Hints:
eight-stranded mixed β-sheet
Amino acid sequence: MGNEVIPAAAEVLNALGLDIQFTEVKAGFEHFQKSGNAIPDETLAAIESAGVALFGATSSPSTKVEGYRSPILAMRKAFDLYANLRPVQSLPGAFSRPNLDLLIVRENTEGLYAGREHMEDADTAVAERVITRKGSSRIARVAYEHADKRSKIKDQRLTIVHKANVLKLTDGLFREECLKVAKEFPHITTQEMLVDAMSMRLVKDPENFDVIVTTNLFGDILSDEASALIGGLGVAPSANIGAKVAVFEPVHGSAPDIMGQGIANPIGAILSSAMMLDHLKQGDAASRVRRAVNATLSSGVLPKDLGGKATTKEVTKAVISNL
């Protein structure tokens, strides 16, 4: 589905008149099957040269395939994309819960996604959960800096989500480092919450949260859950931020069941491109894109997953018209 929604986002960016130059590069399991490499060196080099990339969802096998690793995981490691930002903002329409504007800040390189798995014996598989002081401290700083910038409410709040009551060493370290950073931002109200309680509160009263910071796997699950509040994964954008490179991607998967039918929802990809514009200090253009998306949805031009009948091209055309 990535090769359907990313071109849609590129069309919207082109319509802004910002003279953006695009380079299209290959990645994914299909490319791996053809070449033996899911993300070739020339792709990584092009991303590094540009400094930013829009990445479309690719399929990954559920079983181990020798030599294959998910392209997004490879990019996170290659460019140290340690901060994953996943905003959850209400959209106009009955499919979305109103009055939501929260940001989930997820550590993006450690935890159970560190890729350290092995077979202990023929019947036991072991995954190592990696939490470091450096990784915990820097993601906490990103979260507090974002909380500091957000002024939608007079009482800025940040919630540290962990499971330190059980994972006393790993989440204990994460919690400790987050609380250290919190002391540098005394004007921000800090609270802690166990991840199981947080998963319930996101359903019950998400309006009471502003910025949430958590570890890799917890952040992945909580942000996917939160996307259901605003219409699902099809409308959810995200950013993978490192010191020198940033990769922006819609949260949804590759959806092979609808591939090639022209009905994929491009909203998540288009909103991801707006996050890219913010990153490039093009805030006015980013706001134009978001307003155009809202105008499109308000006018009833809805893709299938939001209860409408509009095709990918029809949604994209409407967004461009509303710019």
